[in-house]
Amino acid sequence: MKEEESAGIPRLMISAPGKSSGKTTLAIGIAANLSASGWQVNSFKKGPDYIDPAWHRLATGNECYNLDPWMMGPEGCRSSFIGHSGISEASLSLIEGNHGLHDGMSLDGSDSSAGLAEMLQTPVLLVVDGHDAGRGAAATVMGMQAMPPSVTIAGVVLNRVRSERQAEKQRRAIEHYCDIPVLGAIPADRSLTIPERHLGLTTVAETGKAGEFIRNAAATVAACCNMEAISALFFSAPYMAPRLACCPKQRTANSKARIGVFRDAAFSFYYPDNLEALEQQGAELVFIDSLAASRLPEVDALYIGGGFPESFFSELSRNSSLQQGVRSAADAGMPIYAECGGLIYLSRSASYRGKSFPMAGVLPFDIGFTERPAAHGYLDLESTADSVWFTKGELVKAHEFHYSSTTAIAGNPDWQFAVRRGNGTTGSTDGVIRQNIFASYAHLHSVSSPGWAPAFVSAAAAYRTAAE
User: Is the same domain home to 85 and 188?
Assistant: First the structure.
């Protein structure tokens, strides 16, 4: 087959008119079916999200990468997508959108799922929640077709339909008025809904029968959808050259430093790009179970990401020996980078649902939780000081989503950032600095902050050298 006639990167986006329509369930059901059929499914999630990618990872056996136009920019998204899409003839790339197809911050929709689909010239399979609709479902689809950015809605799957009669009424209207095939109708079934919590879906780690859920989703999709037609949609995308937009990834032969990463049910929010960026700078990553490990392994730095520490406060506070190890490492000047959940872990204490739990006691404040989000959305940050992590004047795009805030701040801590958009830690500042410690509510992405990984590994290597 000639290159110009080949698919290049066969690709498809799963999206919906609005959030909580069943995108993730359909996406993992399709991905699991394709994987079982011998395809290598490379999956992506639009926007800032840690939970849905973990479900994708379990369904495909491959890493799921985020594509965020606001944080990463068009070229960052395109480069990451091409770089993480497979180049074999058995590779397919599946993107799950976020929120509704046309939802985004910008008026022109360039940062929406539709904007990403337009940017990557990717056809869309639209999931329509048909629970309370009749022929009016076609009007919803027509609105999606008419709203810019202009994308190719190549097919529709009806979800949560109550009867075959209702599904047939919707199918006939959509195919007649929208000229789009309806490729499936999934009945309403509570067992096919991943439970939601305050940060979105429950995590894979918290779902005891996650594997069983994926198998059921795959079986339902296979029974209720035309998988042959859905598979063909991947190959309807215009040719996109694989790998051409990315530089080859280089890894240092000898480890410059060992970075310990808290990675367990309490701390699971890490962009794979961030971990890979550290490795590409020469770091060896050592994963630590904060719930089970009684001491720190021999490492030169710590990375404590986000997650749901509040669900494990009892276990974390009982593991006082690990907390003491972290305090001792901090006092010795070990570089520690903490995001959101990591900031909570380093605090003096955390109050949650009427109980107070002792934390590591590294930072001079306590943590309190509220019923409503303390902050939710994107962050624009400007560095106001030089540190081992960031330079003065550096601009950082990030995101935050937390139900907690700092209380009883002692003294006058040093702060890395002035907040230009968002809330951060205090409403006007974010990124507390103490010695070589940085702790923040901000989640950043290494593609949009390319200096982060080199600074992290350099700080770890310097600590290692000083200790030798």
Answer: yes
| Per-residue model confidence as pLDDT tens digits over 71-99 | 999 999 999 999 999 888 899 999 999 99
Domain range for 95 is 3-234
pLDDT value at 231 more than 80: yes
> Which tokens go with 339?
């995001």
Residue 243 included in any domain: no
Whether 229 and 261 map to the same domain: the answer is no
Residue 428 has pLDDT above 60, yes or no: yes
pLDDT given for residue 403 in this prediction = 93
Q: In terms of pTM, does the model score above 0.70? A: yes
Number of domains in the chain: 2
Prior bond of 181 cis (ω within 30°): no
Q: What is the CA radius of gyration of the chain?
A: 23
- Catalytic residue, chosen from 64, 178, 225, 340, is 340
User: Are 226 and 266 found together in one domain?
Assistant: no
340 is a catalytic site residue: yes
Same domain as 267, residue 217: no
> DSSP per residue over 379-435, as a string?
EEEEE-S--SS--TT-EEEEEEEESEEEES--S--EEEEEEEES-TTTSSEEEEEET
- Decide: helix, strand or coil at residue 112: coil
**Is residue 207 pLDDT above 90, yes or no?**
no
Q: CA 367, 285, 84 angle in degrees (round to 5)?
A: 100
Angle at 276 between CA 86 and CA 53, to 5 degrees: 65
Here the CATH number for the domain that contains residue 48 is: 3.40.50.300
| One domain for residues 261 and 225 | no
Inter-residue long-range contacts of 207-215, CB under 8 Å, 24+ positions, other chains counted: 210/55, 210/58, 211/58, 214/28, 214/29, 214/32, 214/55, 214/58, 214/59, 215/32
Tens-place pLDDT, residues 263-274: 999 999 999 999
Query: Same domain for 275 and 219?
Result: no
The total of other beta-carbon atoms located within 10 Å of residue 179's CB is 9
